[in-house]
Amino acid sequence: MAGRISPDDVAHVARLARLELSDAEVATFASQLSDVLDHAADVEALDTTGVEPMVHPLPLRNVLRPDEVGDVLERDEVLAAAPDAADGQFRVPAILGDPE
Amino acid sequence: MSDAASLLGRSASDIAAGVRSGAVSAADVVDAHLDAIAAEDPDINAFNHVTADEARRAAAAVDEAVAAGRDPGPLAGVPVALKDNLCTRGVPTTCSSRMLEGWRPPYDATVVALLARAGAVAVGKTNLDEFAMGSSTENSAFGPTRNPRDRSRVPGGSSGGSAAAVAAGFAPVALGSDTGGSIRQPAALCGVVGLKPTYGLVSRYGLVAFASSLDQIGPMTTTVADAALLLDVIAGHDPADSTSIPDELPRYADAVDRGVAGLRVGVVSELSGAGIAADVAARTAEAVAALEAAGASVEEVSVPAVTYGLSAYYLIAPAEASSNLARYDGVRYGLRVDAPTTDAMMIATRTAGFGPEVKRRIMLGTYALSAGYYDAYYGKAQQVRTLIARDFAAAYERVDLLVSPTSPTTAFAFGAKEDPLAMYLNDVCTIPSNLAGHPAVSVPFGVGDDGLPVGVQLMAPALAEERLLAAAAVLEAAAGAGAATGQAAATGGAS
């Protein structure tokens, strides 16, 4: 069965998902993801004209609460779990400049 | 002092009654279970982390409450194992992933706080397939869990550590989470009771998200009465979870003895033929006969759209997962792999932190959501979800409960399903209830030709947990009375 997902597709999706894959992983994923999507061909072939999509099992509504300060997490305790923090904030490497 | 061995293998109801009356101490109960864990878990590997010190302190507090005449709670002194995707304040919560290795959450999941308030004593965090993605617990970054009924077999998954902990007698009860069968399938493979409640019945606050429209926390226990007891503690509205159902709830423990007289039971035709092993099908037929003997009427019912459930699930769940797992970016908690720029750091972190199955599902979900494919895959799968909900609704016009096997086979060997699609097919019977948001329970019912446990699944409409528990108790009693045939159970369990 011809692969539904090419190695190029896999490489593109990996970039979107912020994952770096080896050539071997790209080939494996292309084959495995194609198998799963081949299995899903039954869904693709189903006539669902006019069927509303179900995004959730419950009839979701906005849930609001009074705009009052409740219990909140301790900032220092939260920042202590971060890989890097400074001056009460999360710290990250450079975000501007050449991404390469 | 009680004999330690006599404190093992008892139900939660029994332990709580003993502790509340002062007949046994919570400290002795917890020590006996911690000793069993220390002796056997190095081989079983049900736990990622054992909280022995915290458990002894909590047990002492329960005993103090009893001594002082204060109510120690309905789960007084009951050891409980927590799936390691439930946040526990100050206690490592890893999701069996390198990504969260060493992370200590700054808060407790709502269910964890509710259990503590009820007097339960958490003994540790149990192993799972990484981020709850899998059906065998082989996808754990910290090594697989062995099935206590046969240590050469998988315990199922993703809540395999919780199922194994209960089956091995390390704790009489555990919590798992179920996105496509992750409570019920390991319960079936390890021979314990596993209940997935109605979506929204139990707060998901503090459950590390996999697929938010499908995830639900539930009990894994040795008895149906214990499942009801635990559900009474963990169910209920939580303002911290916007999908939490605000309804007034019944007392589930009261429902267990109601029986099935007059109930209409439907056998799902689409889940009883091809793909189900003969021994599993035979036990399921015996379970149906047992319900009939107890006064239920039985008919075969078609729920045609469930045949599309697997395909729809493996588009929807990875799509939601790819979005939920975007949060692991090396910024706020968990792993960071250093790199010169933030973008490069995020890529390096995610590449190093996630295992192969998690990457596979992130890739699948990202693809299904990407431009040009959204309508064909994700949108279509959501329409199929509507069809499944409609077909269930039509079936429940005719019957009160539906029956099927939980898993197509008994526990399989390690490495038996290396092809991802073969592994996904395990979930064919359990997935439809998640897609519909309905409750379902797996009850042990005899053994297969290999002597390993078979689980039978009961399904019901939203919020019909009482009916489900009553029918589950009938099956439990019938199995105990010999209605389930099959060869003698395998030995090798720790309990």
Fold and architecture overview:
- The complex is a heterodimer of chains A (100) and B (495).
- Chain A contains four helices and two strands; from the N terminus they run H-H-H-H-E-E.
- Chain A has helices spanning 7-16, 23-39, 41-45, 75-80, and strands at 85-86, 89-90.
- A two-stranded antiparallel sheet of chain A has the order 1-2.
- In chain A, a hairpin with a 2-residue loop joins strand 1 (85-86) and strand 2 (89-90).
- The longest helix of chain A is centred in the N-terminal third of the chain and has 17 residues, at 23-39.
- The radius of gyration of chain A is 23 Å and the shape is flat.
- Chain B has a single domain, classed as Amidase signature (AS) enzymes (Alpha-Beta Complex), CATH 3.90.1300.10.
- In chain B, strands 1-3-2-4-6-5-10-11-9-7-8 form an eleven-stranded mixed β-sheet, sandwiched between helices.
- The interface between A and B is large, with 53 and 72 residues.
Per-chain topology:
The complex is a heterodimer of chains A (100) and B (495).
Chain A: H1 7-16, H2 23-39, H3 41-45, H4 75-80, E1 85-86, E2 89-90
Helix pairs in contact in A: 1-2
Chain B: H1 12-21, H2 26-44, E1 47-50, H3 52-67, E2 79-83, H4 110-117, E3 121-126, H5 160-167, E4 173-178, H6 184-190, E5 193-196, E6 216-221, H7 224-234, E7 264-268, H8 278-293, E8 297-301, H9 309-324, H10 342-353, H11 356-369, H12 375-398, E9 401-405, H13 420-424, H14 431-436, E10 440-447, E11 453-459, H15 465-480
Parallel strand pairs in B: 2-3, 2-4, 7-8, 7-9
Antiparallel strand pairs in B: 1-3, 4-6, 5-6, 5-10, 9-11, 10-11
